[in-house]
Design goal:
The protein is mainly alpha-helical and 116 residues long. It has one domain. It is 87% helix and 0% strand. It is built from four helices and no strands. The protein has helices spanning 2-10, 15-40, 44-74, 79-113. Helix 1 crosses helix 3 and helix 2 runs antiparallel to helix 3. The longest helix is centred in the C-terminal third of the chain and has 35 residues, at 79-113.
């Protein structure tokens, strides 16, 4: 299991696996878990644990997918793989921008209502 995580971290996995299995699937799974915890329990402790897990995954996923995409673009891979690598890099940027915007929104919310 550790070897799998390290292969992704180093960018050794193919771009499709890196993007879909390690990127898109966990993104939606963690988002769903976060939403369910928020709606069903709204326990701040649980939300903080899921947020910590999300940010740990985010670093691992972004680094591995970016490395895999760059490796694909530099290699003699086919055109389909290279297109997927460009799409993966665009999605990495989109996820980082969206996550930053969500963090700013939460920070504003907490700042607004901390004294209530």
């Amino acid at each position: 299991m550790f070897a799998y995580f390290m292969r992704h971290w180093r960018g050794d996995q193919n771009i499709a696996q890196s993007l879909l299995v390690n990127g898109v699937l966990p993104y939606f799974a963690l988002g769903t878990v976060f939403l369910l915890i928020y709606v069903l329990t709204f326990r701040l402790t649980y939300l903080m644990w899921v947020a910590a897990l999300f940010f740990a995954w985010l670093v691992w996923g972004v680094v591995g997918t970016t490395r895999s995409a760059i490796r694909t673009l530099r290699s003699g891979a086919g055109i389909t793989s290279k297109i997927l690598a460009v799409v993966a890099l665009a999605l990495v940027v989109a996820v980082l921008v969206e996550t930053a915007s969500q963090v700013v929104a939460v920070a504003r919310f907490v700042t607004l209502y901390r004294d209530v």
